[in-house]
Specification:
The complex is a heterodimer of chains A (385) and B (326). By secondary structure, chain A is mainly alpha-helical. Chain A folds into 2 domains: 138 residues, no CATH class; 232 residues, MetI-like (MetI-like fold, Orthogonal Bundle), CATH 1.10.3720.10. In chain A, 71% of the residues lie in helices and 0% in strands. Chain A has 17 helices and no strands. Chain A is globular and about 75 Å long. About 3% of the residues of chain A have low confidence. Chain B has a domain of 197 residues: MetI-like fold (Orthogonal Bundle). The model of chain B has no long low-confidence stretch (mean pLDDT 81). The longest helix of chain B is centred in the middle third of the chain and has 39 residues. In chain B, helix 1 packs antiparallel against helix 12. Chain B is 78% helix and 0% strand. Chain B starts with a helix and ends in a 7-residue tail after the last helix. Classes of the chains: A mainly alpha (385), B mainly alpha (326). The interface between A and B is large, with 43 and 52 residues.
Chain lengths: 385, 326
């Protein structure tokens, strides 16, 4: 019997279960055990998400109990809030240094992608900007100094001042408050519409690519049909013919923006289906549905993530264009595009009315595009120089 | 090649008809019709009934569809409800304006986009990152915002500050256009085109150059580029002839995808600059529920995209002789 080597000793030390106290701590205050393990950044973030989320929920508790009367953006905010809390909690409880395997032989592609992405300072800055915009949108009811929809005709068209940091519009509404609420509308539309379009696009693309034959032909003709239609013209037609509301805009954007994802996913599936692991799955007698869902879709996930991130930016621009034409979100609900349009009449004198919400659009879309580019560079090994 | 082109054109016909049918369905599914818009409150319902009868809006869906398709096949785009003129005449006035705007923007965007993309791909990393950020800002900028900013600077502030560079904010020609000589007219038209075309082409340039850069970076690594360099060709020839020609192939296929974006852009640009084009006509028609104009306008937009795809495919074959058609 030889002495245990130092390496083995370290392995057993890492393998040891954490004491019960720390598990309980993770249940109550996720992130705290990570801080105790001196993982300051991650632990701190999780603690902040947890406390911040609980804080918002606590402040809004009455509204949460008061079922109904919710607008779409409030649902989106609430759902993501709860989801964030659950994720933070789950991550903290499961990711304590319990069974961290003693250094895997090779980093997984996802680990590699994370490293590459982390080195891309521009992309990281974009990600932080998105988080900041998102948090601002979430906290809007508490951050906004005034009611974004309350008219006050005695305070029309005021220049930026201490009272109104960004001035007031032609109905005396506080521009800063409207800007903050506009972030909610833009993000809600971007996130939900892209979720719809990417889901449709991915499923259709995978089905077309894997099954092929007349199914492929039919789906691709449909893609050609939707693509050959200028999307803004189609959107304008549909939205104008049916009364424009947040719901209609989201559904229409979701149902018209899927062909891009379909084309890319189909292309990837066409090359994946010839690979050996798909052949093996087929030899095992798995159904088509199972092969698509369990074997093909996970492999196109990287592409889908990139398409979705870049798609959110494009969708926000489209919605702004619709609102600019007066066909999007209707006044008095603040949307950035509507605000730019409303400010047009005062372009010569109160120029900030149009330009400030306009720059908010550029900033947000830029953040999503930077992150999308960063993700593509990180996830696509071919792009690595 | 000829057979391929003919087949593509034949395929484009059912495509356009499918688009037309889709729009027809949409217009019918939507609540409200032209009579509801024309009849103001207080006007007796009988007037609306009369209007519907005049326009044939009281007929069953199938009858209306068959009638419209019938006249379309004969090349008749029907009569506009609101303009009081044949739709063809209304659109014939607007179409040249839109085509002028989008064709100029497309040309500039492709020229400039290829140039910027190639420069990004061959210059050192620092130049590339600076240009990338600039391109990305324009890529993220909604057309209408850029248009408004340009109006703010060159149409409002320039005259106030007495800058020599100023451009009109809207319209296609100056008041004294009728009395100008040919040179003056041309200059006046160009003068009015500067801001809208700049806006449209800058946003499009960003998209094109992003694509060219990626495509160029891939091509530059390939063996034939190394071969070209090794046999002593000047760098200029290697990049602009050998590499670019191969890098452009995928870019040209994208042409068909840019066109819908371009036309979407013209709709917004026409709204910003008060440009009397197709986009403005169609958007106005939607507000008035002017069904024949909506249908004809969407059809023409779709046809232009289908045609552009065809042109892209033919260009593709010209640039890349390896492509075979059968």
């Amino acid at each position: 019997m030889t002495e245990p080597s130092p390496a083995m000793e370290r392995a057993t030390a890492v393998d040891a279960r954490p004491d019960g106290g720390r598990t309980w701590l993770a249940f109550v205050l996720p992130g705290a055990p990570q801080i105790l393990e001196k993982r300051w950044g991650l632990g701190g973030c999780v603690v902040m998400v947890w406390l911040g989320g609980l804080g918002v929920l606590g402040l809004r508790w009455r509204a949460v109990l008061d079922v109904g009367g919710y607008s779409m953006d409030e649902w989106v905010a609430l759902t993501t809030l709860v989801l964030g809390l659950v994720l933070a909690w789950g991550w903290s409880v499961t990711r304590m240094r319990t069974a961290e395997s003693p250094a895997r032989a090779e980093p997984s592609p996802w680990d590699e992608a994370r490293t590459v992405f982390g080195k891309n300072r521009l992309a990281v800055a974009g990600l932080l900007a998105i988080v900041a915009i998102y948090l601002a949108a979430l906290w809007t009811p508490y951050l906004a100094p005034y009611d974004p929809m309350a008219d006050d005709l005695t305070r029309r068209l005021m220049a930026p001042s201490g009272d109104h940091l960004l001035g007031t519009d032609e109905y005396g509404r506080d521009v800063l408050s409207r800007l903050l609420f506009g972030a909610r509308i833009s993000l809600s539309i971007g996130l939900v519409a892209v979720a719809i379009s990417v889901t449709i696009g991915t499923i259709l693309g995978a089905v077309a690519g894997y099954i092929g034959g007349w199914v492929d032909g039919l789906i691709m003709r449909l893609v050609d049909l939707v693509i050959s239609f200028p999307s803004l013209v189609l959107l304008v037609t549909v939205v104008a013919l049916f009364q424009p509301s947040l719901f209609v805009i989201i559904v229409v954007l979701g149902l018209t923006q899927w062909p891009g994802a379909t084309r890319l996913v189909r292309g990837e599936v066409l090359s994946l289906r010839e690979r050996e692991f798909v052949l093996a799955a087929r030899a095992l007698g798995f159904s088509r549905a199972r092969i698509i869902a369990r074997h093909l879709l996970p492999n196109v996930l990287a592409t889908v993530i990139v398409v979705a991130t870049l798609g959110i930016g494009q969708t926000i621009v489209l919605e702004a264009g619709l609102s600019f034409l007066g066909l999007g979100v209707q006044s008095p609900t603040p949307s950035w595009g509507t605000m730019v349009n409303d400010g047009r009449d005062h372009l010569t004198s109160e120029w900030w009315l149009s330009t400030v919400p306009g720059l908010a659009i550029v900033f947000t879309v830029l953040a999503f595009n930077v992150v999308g580019d960063g993700l593509r560079d990180a996830l696509d090994p071919r792009m690595r120089g | 090649m000829k057979a391929y082109v003919v087949r593509r054109i034949l395929l484009a016909v059912p495509m356009a008809l499918a688009v037309a049918t889709l729009v027809f369905l949409l217009v019918h599914l939507a609540p409200g019709d032209a009579a509801d818009v024309l009849v103001r409150p207080g006007v007796p319902e009988s007037v609306a009934v009369q209007i519907r009868a005049n326009y044939g809006l009281d007929q069953p869906f199938a009858v209306q569809y068959a009638r419209w398709m019938g006249s379309l096949v004969r090349g008749d785009l029907a009569y506009s409800f609101t303009h009081g003129r044949p739709v063809a005449a209304v659109l014939a006035e607007a179409l040249p304006n839109t085509l002028l705007l989008s064709a100029l923007a497309l040309l500039i965007a492709f020229g400039l986009g290829v140039l910027v993309g190639v420069v990004q791909a061959i210059k050192p990393r620092s130049t590339d990152s600076v240009l990338s950020v600039v391109v990305l800002v324009f890529y993220s900028m909604p057309e209408f915002l850029l248009g408004l900013l340009l109006i703010l600077i060159f149409a409002y502030h320039a005259p106030l500050e007495g800058w020599p560079v100023r451009f009109p904010a809207s319209g296609t020609r100056s008041p004294g256009y009728e009395v100008m000589d040919f040179g003056g007219r041309l200059a006046d038209r160009l003068y009015h085109l500067v801001l809208p075309v700049t806006t449209l082409s800058l946003v499009l340039t960003a998209g094109v150059s992003r694509y060219v850069r990626g495509s160029m970076l891939e091509v530059i690594r390939q063996d034939f580029v190394r071969t070209a360099r090794a046999k002593g060709l000047p760098e200029r020839s290697v990049i602009w002839k050998h590499a670019l020609r191969n890098a452009l192939t995928p870019v040209i296929t994208q042409l068909g995808l840019y066109l819908p974006v371009l036309f979407g852009g013209t709709v917004l640009i026409e709204a910003v600059f008060g440009w009397p084009g197709m986009g403005k006509i169609v958007v106005d028609a939607i507000g008035e529920r002017d069904q024949p104009v909506i249908l004809a306008g969407s059809l023409i937009f779709a046809l232009m995209v289908v045609l552009a795809n065809l042109v892209a495919d033919i260009l593709y074959a010209l640039v890349d002789p390896r492509i075979r058609y059968d």
